[in-house]
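Task: sequence in, structure out. Protein: LptF/LptG family permease.
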Amino acid sequence: MKKLDKLILQAFAGPFFLTFAVVQFIFLMQFMMKYMDDLVGKDLGLGVIAQLLFYFSVLIVPISLPLAVLLSSLMTFGTLGEHHELTAIKTAGISLTRILRPVLLVSMLLAGGAFWFNNTIVPLANLEAYSLLWDVRQQKLALDIREGVFYNGIPGYTIKVNQKLGENGDILKGVMIYDHTQSSGSMRVILADSGRMFTRFGGQYLGLELFRGRMYVEQPSTDNRNGANFVRQNFGRNLITFSLSSFGLDRTKTELFAANKMMLNLDQLAHFTDSLHQRVRIERVQLITQLNPYYTYLRFDTTGQAAALRVQNWKVSPAELRPVSLNITQQAANRARNVRSFLGTSAERLTNLSKETANYRIESFKKFTQSAAILLMFLIGAPLGAIIKKGGLGVPILVSIVFFIIYYVLSIMGEKYGREMVMPVGPGMWLATSLLLPVGLFFLYQARHDSGLLDIKWAQLLPNWLRWPLRGYKKVS
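Result:
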């Protein structure tokens, strides 16, 4: 490797790792804020939170890499241009494309690695992340007994506390407990002046020690179905233990989520897509066969000739023939309504199948477009950094955010158009790349010819370009 390549790669490595870490952190915080309502108040523990952070950080790698390449390319070549190092290298007879070659090779390696990562690692991370997130969502909130509010989070019990004292709120005043755990239909009501709350056996059980209270027990009478026996007991101290097993995190088998499109690699996605295509074709062929019974001919004379003969030969009045015509009209209207209902249901089913097929195809295209985005961002960032000649974190961050937002919006639009079948899935998924690729090639052309893309000369030449058609119009007139 030549010294020039080492110089450029060393200048690129630092900004790349720094920007990649920053972008990963920003996107990870965005993910966690999105699901914050599902995580707060459930006492998940550091282990579960660490797993979610790890899985989500893996998922956002394909999103972070293009932005990191764009920003680091801008910073690298902007700094080289700002310190006149690009000018010195060009003076030695080295072209800009030769200067960009080492970072281009690194970007190609990153694109290939991102494709492998997106096809192999991301589906597994999706499976683990979203299965764990599902279990977290199903978990109940942590024990939270509030003052003056009936709490029924513990199965079979309803607890109300008038006042909570102490640093941790473990001293209780005015305790009321409804016990519905007896399967015989009896109910217990426990009232206490005060109490103390604590955990037992490593947090698996909740202990409630009550002082100066009464217990009311109501039991159905065996002699009278409408009657009941009522028992009252006083106590000075009573210890009640509640199981907290319902607050634990129960893990669901990950195999139940394995068929989701986000958990599949390219081969599996292709298999599911082919199956859905075959199903759509079968549904369309069966639709024609299923419509045939609705188009059988009615065995009635609708020409009026037989009716005229009957009136003439058998002296039948026209009024007696009217019910036949009404019957024909009614049956035809009923069949038309049945056909419309059947076609509406069939069209909706076919539309849903087509959309589901489009969703699987979108997941397949994502693995390619997210990898190609790395090369696209390099093609935009490196020449643009050589043109603007500004390093640091100011201008490069601003320019990177602008282009990444444009790319992200175009990607979302193309994906939505493909999912809603406004346009084919392939062109929709490649929409952002196809629109921004000419921009990157234009920047590369300008950088090779040392054109100041953002110089004020462009603003000075623009009015002349706008007036040129008008001058031609005046000459013709």
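The beta strands are 157-165, 171-179, 187-200, 205-220, 228-243.
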